[in-house]
Fold this sequence. Notes:
The protein is α/β, with parallel strands linked by helices. It is 45% helix and 10% strand. The chain has helices spanning 19-54, 60-63, 70-89, 122-126, 144-150, 161-175, 235-243, 262-266, 268-283, 311-321, 326-341, 350-357, 362-372, 380-391, 396-407, 417-428, 436-443, 450-459, 464-471, and strands at residues 12-13, 96-98, 109-113, 133-135, 154-156, 184-186, 212-218, 231-232, 251-254, 290-293, 296-301, 304-307, 347-349, 377-379. The protein has a 5-stranded mixed beta sheet with strand order 2-9-7-3-6. The model is unreliable at 1-5 and 473-504 (pLDDT under 50). Helix 1 (19-54) packs antiparallel against helix 3 (70-89), helix 1 crosses helix 5 and helix 18 packs across helix 19.
Amino acid sequence: MMWKTHTPHPFVHEVKLTAARRIRGMILGVVLFPVRITLATLFFLLMWPVARLRLAGLSAAERAEPVRGWRWWLFHHIMLFLSRAVFFSVGFLWIRVKGRQAGLKEAPVLVVAPHSGFLDMLVLYATGLPIVVSRAENCRLPVIGALLEFNQSLIVSRKDPQSRKKCVSQICERVTSDARWPQMLMFPEGTTTNGRALIKFKPGAFLAGVPVQPVLLHYPGEPDTVRWTWKGQTWLGALWHTTSQIHTSVTVEFLPVYTPSPDEKQSPELYAENVQKLMAEALCVPATDYVMEGRSPDKKLGNLSLPLEPPAQETLRLLREHGLTSAHVEAVMNHVIDSCHSGQSSMVTADHLAALLGLKDRKMAVKICSLYSKDDTVDLRQICLSVSAVSGFRSLESLIHICWQWYDADQDGLLSADDLSGLMGALVGVPQYSITEMYTALTARGRPTEASLQDLLMTHPVYRRVCTEYLHSSGSADRNHNGIPNRKANGINNGYGATETKSD
């Protein structure tokens, strides 16, 4: 028996084609792809001088104000025409619009989801070219930089905290300007998904506490070719498959304006969460707490960041592929635990790890190291604790006790916030830097002792999910999904009140 979440993985998309569709796509693609890309490129390049002319001759101060008069109506309508021409060229022969777009005073912000790929930019045409927020790196791209300037977009450098603060301030200023600035459009997911679930909305669109209009993007056609995600189809594949269709269907659906409550105005996170749930319900997909941080997708539990593909799970798969038995892996994990107890250094190189695991292929050890760190060294405590937790080699109570002995830095029987950060990072196999919320929940139960931590993980509505969903989801009482037997997997669930269902 195992706990299993049925939420689809939103960051992977493959185009599934029958043999007939594949042959048809190749034949059409040979003809349509070069013609359509040539036309789209031509219209795209024509946008460049139009974009430059709109602000030509204006001072920096004038460019910081919204464009008015003839510069607006002349160049705006030309850009609308060229935008439509670009997407017509690549196969969007019709753009179906459902519902009514709210006026600027009704909803200063449009929030669009799901975000599927670069072809979603067609929504800018359907909504009248509202202002967008873009990364600073895009300003250096040919044509794109000019279009962002034309749009009077807000530019943010994700690596610069001051730039982010300035962008937040500008967003709030523009959307509360009493219709002086045009509507703003944002993709609150912040990255692209396969559309089978909505990931956690970022709060940027909701910071000012003004009404927003949710906008849904539907691609009802088959095959689903437009999506470009973390894994699976590439952007070039999306372009090839889309232009190789006779036409691609899309519907832009405007939902009623969402006016925030007083509580939502005070909490952008709550506002974002409620709009996400509303849009997910309209799309008939789950609203999830998945996020994309850095280069990998995560699941948020409180302030914990848990990758959707746990490193311990991947480690077990790699070891299984290399022919290691469950008994051998368990023996190695126990040996590592004993060696760490004896005071030996827990940091090892890939060569040491290969020898420890009995791997003949050093590349396999390097790959395992890369799951846990950015170089060829790794903290054995992270490997052995996370692998033991996911595989069920030891009960959770036993693992917490081991963690406590290793991470109670001053050996006073109490955890500091830094101690808890290291402990949880080792248990789930991923460093945890934002532990404040969890530590507050721990200290709210009294002194931060081992018993308090076990109680937190056993009963807290958020952190118990680390055990019932995250750690336990990778294994079962008899065999985990990688095929490695779990003789003690029930131990990780004993007393934790998880709902158990049969594995599909």
